[in-house]
Every structure is written in structure tokens, then in C-alpha cells.
Amino acid sequence: MAEAVTGPEAYDAGPYVPQRAGLEELREAAAGCRGCPLYGPATRTVFGSGDASARVVLIGEQPGDQEDRRGLPFVGPAGRVLMRAVDEAGIDPTETYVTNAVKHFKFALTGRGKRRIHKPPSLRETAACKPWLDAELTLLDPEVVVTLGATAGKALLGSGFRVTRERGVPMAGPPGGAAPGGPGPVLVATIHPSAVLRAEDERERVYAGLVADLRVAAGALR
Description:
It is a single chain. This protein is an alpha/beta fold. It has one domain: Uracil-DNA glycosylase-like domain (Uracil-DNA Glycosylase, subunit E, 3-Layer(aba) Sandwich). Helices cover 35% and strands 14% of the residues. The protein is built from eight helices and eight strands; from the N terminus they run αββααβββαβααββαα. It has helices at residues 23-30, 65-70, 77-88, 123-140, 150-157, 163-166, 194-198, 203-219; strands at residues 49-50, 56-60, 96-100, 107-110, 115-118, 144-148, 171-172, 186-190. The longest helix has 18 residues, at 123-140. Mean pLDDT is 92; it is low at 1-6. One of its GO terms (biological process) is DNA repair.
């Protein structure tokens, strides 16, 4: 296992990512990642999960409280919203792989330190974790990549990405993949499913927008 680095280069997971590794080897290696300070307070690394031959990869922001405790992505309320929307949009949930741009839970403690409140990862933390996401996408070589929310979109499209401007529009996905020279994935951006839960009075409308964007992703499948 690589040793944790310090100084300006501390924000980089690259030294921890094994070369020519399969998904299980990546998952095992990620458990020991010390590529940024987020590993310290978090319970564990939360790596991606799903079908190794997935046609669709769904990328969120970071694990939440339940994901951090259980070690799996999208197992909380937002995950349930996402899988319902995926199915309603015509994408087979068994042909999906879910992961996050950042693999550790970033939070603040409230209520006498007993409650962990989500804090968005910084651009620096997102960039530090990107070698893991790149390795996942290279191995999976999906037909479609769906970014869920601003952090995931910025991880792949840069800091100028805006969900409100670019959601629901098919665009060229990240280069690379398991088949050099082959067609890259189609990328479709949409909101994070947690936005549906926060919508309250407009929940049905926001959920319908998520489903509509996912239908665009379903239509891009070859």
C-alpha cells in the first residue's frame, strides 16, 4: 500500500490506483486510499457497485451518511429515488453501475457531535479523487455515462459546468475506455436525486425532470 503523502501533492489519489487492475482489485486498493484528507474522518472508502458489464454508469457526488456506514453507494433515500427513476425511464437497473466522483463522506458534526451533516467536496478534493473514477470508466467502458448533480458534472466536464444549462442534452463523454479507438460513451447530465427529496412542494415536478433526463440517456443506448 502506498504511504499517505503530505504537502501540496497530498491531494492526489493517483499513487494509490494500481495499474492493469480489475474492479475488485481497484475496490481493495481504494480501501487504503490516503490521497486527500477526507479519508480521516470518514468510516471507510465507498467504491462503486454494480454490473461489471454495465451499459450505463451513474455518477453522483459523494457517499452520504448511510453509504459511509454500509460501504455501498446510493443505498439511502436518494438511491431509492434514483433507482425508481432509472426503471421508469426505461433503463434496466441490473445493467447499471453506480459510483461517486468522491469516494469518502465529507461532513460536519452538529447536535453535540452526534449528527453528521453532508458538506460538498471542494474542486480540489474532487480532482484528487478523479483517478479512481477514470479507472472505473476505463474498465467499464459503458455506452452511456450519467452525471448526477454539479460535482459529478464538474469532475468530467470542468469547473464551468452548470446543471441547469447542460442537463438532458446528449454530449460526448470522457475519452478512453477498454476499447482503444472505439466510440466513447454518450454523457447525459442531470440533477442529483437528493434534489427531489429537498423539493418538498415541487417534488413531483422535479422528479419528472429527472426521469425525462434519464429517458434521454436511455435513448442513447446502442
